Amino acid sequence: MNKEKKRKTWQFPWHYLESFIISISLLLIGFIIEWISGDTIIKLPGWPVNLILILIVISYIIIVQNFFKTSIVKWFSSPQAAISAISILTFLILLMGFIPQNDETTAGFAKTIGLTHVTRSWPYLLCSLYLIVILGFTIVRRFLPFTIKNFAFFLNHAGLFIVIVSASLGTADLWRLNMQLVEGRAIFTTYDNNGKSFNLPFAIKLLDFKIKEYPPNIGFYSLKDNKLIIEKKTQLVEVKEGNSKILGNWNIIIEKYLNGSKKDSLGYDTSNAIGAAPAAYIKAVNQISSKEISGWVSSGSFNSLMKPLALTSDIELVMTIPATREYSSDIRVFESMKEYQDYTIKVNEPLKVHGWTIYQTGYNEKMGKWSKISIIELVRDPWLPAVYIGIFMLLTGSLYLVWMGRSKQTKKIKNNDMV
Fold first, then answer.
1. Using 50, 70 and 90 to split pLDDT, how confident is the model at 4?
2. Do the Cβ atoms of 204 and 191 come closer than 8 Å?
């Protein structure tokens, strides 16, 4: 009786072992190139060179798949090759979620091998190109003859192909610029992360900058440790007129609250002037000794000092600076001196104008709610519609597979009922 010979490694047809060895080797080669190249950032070609390159790759795949039917060509369109390539690229993408993608704040070995800038690294480039080639061969192999049965397969693989190509090669055409708006001034000059200036085809004028704040809080401050005391049993008191709460051995009562104030000879009075800080008149009663201490407490601002209230030689009551709840900018976009339109942009509520997406990103934090400066980011990604098309194809293909599965199940149930 003849025993079946055991298949040797690297003997065609290649299986999962060879496929994962190739994928992992590409990943390691990418790490080595990244380590050798140092701080050199990959610069992919922009439009229209990137489109020409991908058309050349597609043409090459079509020719090879149809006229060179070798074992390695068949392997390129195999499930083993696809699964190994997707697994390695997914592994890289998962690392992005665990490692901060910032070369300035993250250093060490992770930065050396490109894990702090994954999408601009050699490992990501090699693994992406490898997966693009494999998907290309797979799509061409199953595309002809085109049948309804292959429709969902084509949508899923072609959709993934378009998403990866658009997200990878499209990065060269991605513009991410910063602009500092000054109230009352029309500005059309923006800057990239390297400080290089660019002129936009339109100008933006800041009409008004607004901030909504949370109420400040009152808490204990340790003069001995020079820090705010926040423990499980000692929380902060929200500053609201009439509010009271037990902090440690003290009953803290907010008798009066001024959202904006100025200091005078009698204490604090209401003020709407620039830099007017919140202030509260507080009564603190010791629960053990019945000692009562009253006085004004203020968080201060950029042009006024903070005012604590001493309870003991080591403990003071202080007011925290109000935290920002929401900030927005009223802007005017000029296409010309006479043609303009007004908009409002907020954090997480970007504005799309002339192919640019405008995000509210910051302001003059020293001035706070009196800031006359608004910082925005302008992003232009011409390949984004292609990414959306690819995602739509993926979803359509998945829904079609679900529908096909239900149809087969229904037919099976009907056949069993007939029997």
1. very low
2. no
